[in-house]
Amino acid sequence: MEPQRQLVSGSVCLLPPASCLSGSLCRLPRNIVQITHYKQYPPDISKVYSYFECRSRSEGQFNEVVFFGLQYLLKKYLAGPVVTEDKIQEAKIFYQLHFRQPVFDEEGWRKILEKHDGRLPICIKAIPEGKVIPRGNVLFTVENTDPDFYWLTNYVETMLVQVWYPITVATISREFKKILAKHLKATSGSLEGLDFKMHDFGYRGVSSQESAALGGAAHLVNFCSTDTVAGIQMVRRYYGCPMAGFSIPAAEHSTIISWGKNREKEAFESLLDQFPSGPVSVVSDSYDIFNACKRIWGDELKERVMERSADSTLVIRPDSGDVAETLLQVIKILEDCFGCSLNSMGYKLLPSYLRIIQGDGIDLGSVDEVLKKLRDKGWSAENVFFGCGSTLLQKMNRDTLNCVFKCSYVETNGRGMDVWKQPVTDPSKGSKRGRLSLRRNSNGFLETVERGAGKPEEDLLVTVFENGSILQEYTLEEIRKNAQLWQEDIIPCQHNQDHLQAEQQHIMNAVH
Amino acid sequence: MAAQDFNILLASDSYKITHYKQYPPDISKVYSYFECRSRSEGQFNEVVFFGLQYLLKKYLAGPVVTEDKIQEAKIFYQLHFRQPVFDEEGWRKILETMLVQVWYPITVATISREFKKILAKHLKATSGSLEGLDFKMHDFGYRGVSSQESAALGGAAHLVNFCSTDTVAGIQMVRRYYGCPMAGFSIPAAEHSTIISWGKNREKEAFESLLDQFPSGPVSVVSDSYDIFNACKRIWGDELKERVMERSADSTLVIRPDSGDVAETLLQVIKILEDCFGCSLNSMGYKLLPSYLRIIQGDGIDLGSVDEVLKKLRDKGWSAENVFFGCGSTLLQKMNRDTLNCVFKCSYVETNGRGMDVWKQPVTDPSKGSKRGRLSLRRNSNGFLETVERGAGKPEEDLLVTVFENGSILQEYTLEEIRKNAQLWQEDIIPCQHNQDHLQAEQQHIMNAVH
């Protein structure tokens, strides 16, 4: 019996009967309206030139971005002969049904097949991947190389704009690295182990397998620590690195609670038995983290723990409660049970067989807060590792770094013209004008030169794709080098703040 | 059949490969469940279940383990853990990571349906009917999601509630996995590049060309490249006024603002259009632009702003029929697993032939406690849905259906059936005192049903 609820009588969309579409999915993904744009450009237009940037914001958290991920999109979706007769036919049928009128430019697409063997007559220039660039600068440009295909430049916008995601993950991941480096340096005097301080836990929390691959890979630009296998695979296939990330055996709640509520000790002990060498991580909050640390680890299994070598650390994992407070209580209990020593900077260190990983509720704010509170209590950042899921791989969007793709230059009847939008309703949505290049000016700052005024020899943009071929590739090794932290990322001081402020001012001025 | 080049042994959090060594000895069954945990405060009280069929068909059905894949995984994990932990038997317990990703289509379908409730409410109140509801919210999110595959999943989830989309990948996903050849429609539309490429002083020529190129059927024209108010007043409302008025009701010009305050810009635009083109009153006494003219607002739209816009329009006497909406990131990207607290937890095991209910209950966060034992879902005597724990449910009352067993998909759903299941209820559209009590009582009951 159902409660008193009535269905709304409204149109559930009834579809006209249509024969099932056969054939493989066109490898070139499409945004629908852009199918109709070939009819909308001015007559005799022969070139459309567009660019991608992460627009500046006067206030805002992220001043610079890590460029990453374009190579994946080029290799996977744009390279080689991507237009075939089958795909044209499939698209034709699709769009007839979808628009309920014939708007598809069959002839235009067939010409790509006839003139260029199905390879895309566009040219893409980009800054090298891994480079860290201030907001508001051109990151890549796209233009057609054959005047018949002016419409192709913005056709690929939808797909290329998705590079916002690996850029944003790589950027946020690097921001984590700055915070961790700062605390690690301050409390231990070195950056040893930095690359393993932030572990990617985000596989289940992203929106798809492919996003896991992209986001997971982007994190590996900055760190070597991950459980997101898809990211490692992506980097292996598209960025030439066979094994970019590592992990350790670790428990999850099901492997603890399946022993029964009164057998948590047996569950823990079994883990020590099964993984006698190498580090092992044990989630310890299934019932009571404090009891688990004090009574089980700190007493009943204390000797087993102390037996483990420095290469076979027990890493205890809380997974609930206030992020900082829980950690502080746990480390206090462990200090009481196992003792500690002082490192060369005078900060406290748990015995080498014992560490903690905090993987719950970690974001840029909380990781800074936790490390600060630990430091205030005299603890080194060496004691703790971090894990991050959604914040690293999902809690972001195209507006996080204001990623956009805009047309800035066209040629009609052989004449070039700078174009731009400048909505009176929102000046921040204005776009750059003309052909663009990126240079380092005489003060050493990166800046975008507009209106075609840039000198080719100074241009840092590199042709990466042309007429279906990839002309420049980057390995993860090169990318990691490009994305390294700078000295001022780790030790901000008055001098550098001025330096950074001056740079920011200059960048702001450089926008028109 | 699952995709050939996909290796299920490499599709989970790597630590799960080590779990076969961590369960108690002689364990023979592990039983887990998925839920969207309750929150006492929070925006979403109910969720639309969607997307599992895609995961089953794409990744789990058929023979997914081959010798090649086992060997590939073995080599991978040796390098990744820097010690041999991979066990060819032990991988079976790793499905959680992949299945939990169903949080995404569930969340998109749920948020999309929340949009539908708001739109239906205003449409009903200002026009007396729900005609055209399915076209009121257009998916603009393709470029703003994190990957092509997410676009397919999210785009498909929106099509559970609406028929209006530019995210082709979603249509394709539904065609392949949910038996619907064409689940969504669109119209020819401009973008800024097709306007500004004419030059700053030729916006009128650009607009006119659009009317020429698309003489029949609706056409959408983004009009804020330089000055939306000038474009509406001078170009549409004067220089091209006759061309606009020529268009039939089937060939509507849909004007698109794309910047500025969401509600204010819309109100100013509709005022200008009223001044230039006039309006009429519908059967409920609300104002309607002429049938050849409509507006689509696709900038800054979320659940809050769409409600606010329609409310303000209504306060000024305008029907919701005048406006369409587009949504990108909010529909497909601005969400995460915590939006609906989606989790996968073990609740029952069998060891040495003996069954045992298991659960977590961290003292540090009671809300993270999990359900216990074998579970079923039933409709109780008051008509409310509730989960029965500890294996106490009666099989004949259980609403859970076996959809997958031993590599085979046993139950499939078409989009048509899914759309019917996800239809709005009367009280979604017209909340009134009686129904509020009814809803509150339901919520209370649900809260009580958690342990």
Automatic annotation (TrEMBL), chain B:
The EC number of this protein is: 2.4.2.12
GO-annotated cellular components: cytoplasm; extracellular space; nucleus
Occurrences of domain Nicotinate/nicotinamide phosphoribosyltransferase (ranges): 135-382
Keyword annotations: Biological rhythms, Cytokine, Cytoplasm, Glycosyltransferase, Nucleus, Pyridine nucleotide biosynthesis, Secreted, Transferase
Any single GO BP term: circadian regulation of gene expression
Q: Which Pfam families match?
A: NAMPT_N, NAPRTase
The answer to whether UniProt assigns keyword rRNA-binding to this entry is no
Subunit structure, per the record? Homodimer.
PANTHER family xref list: NICOTINAMIDE PHOSPHORIBOSYLTRANSFERASE (PTHR43816)
What is the official name of this protein in its record? Nicotinamide phosphoribosyltransferase
Q: What is the lineage of its organism?
A: Eukaryota, Metazoa, Chordata, Craniata, Vertebrata
